[in-house]
């Protein structure tokens, strides 16, 4: 498993890309990927687009993202879910996540999106 957006301090997998590596442009083929990208709009778009592109390479990705249903990247994922061509699962997280290094819980809800080959089950 590959952690596509980590740091030396928070990587969840032995193999990971840091901000300096820019996991959104690295090769993910052959891996199952976990990705908790930075939550700025540019990063969320870049990592979502990367996960979508990697489906054609057989890559299964778990994207942990803010539940911002008004954002373009969320709509890209939702459209693929609606089409039913790929495996797209939305795993809504109850409550607010408290991220490492933060005193308080996030001021927004979060979800994990599973994206990969195979249609709806």
Automatic annotation (TrEMBL):
InterPro entries: Dam_MeTrfase. GO terms for biological process: DNA restriction-modification system. It holds the Pfam family Dam. One of its GO terms (molecular function) is DNA binding. This is DNA N-6-adenine-methyltransferase (Dam). It comes from marine sediment metagenome.
């Amino acid at each position: 498993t590959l952690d596509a957006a980590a740091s030396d301090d928070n990587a969840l997998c032995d193999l990971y890309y840091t901000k300096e590596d820019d996991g959104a442009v690295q090769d993910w083929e052959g891996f199952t990927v976990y990705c908790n990208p930075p939550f700025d709009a540019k990063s969320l778009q870049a990592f979502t687009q990367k996960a979508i592109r990697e489906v054609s390479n057989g890559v299964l990705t778990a994207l942990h993202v803010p539940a911002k249903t008004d954002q373009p990247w969320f709509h890209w994922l939702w459209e693929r879910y609606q089409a039913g061509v790929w495996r797209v699962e939305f795993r809504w997280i109850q409550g607010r996540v408290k991220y490492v290094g933060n005193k308080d819980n996030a001021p927004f809800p979060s979800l994990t999106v599973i994206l990969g080959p195979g249609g709806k089950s």
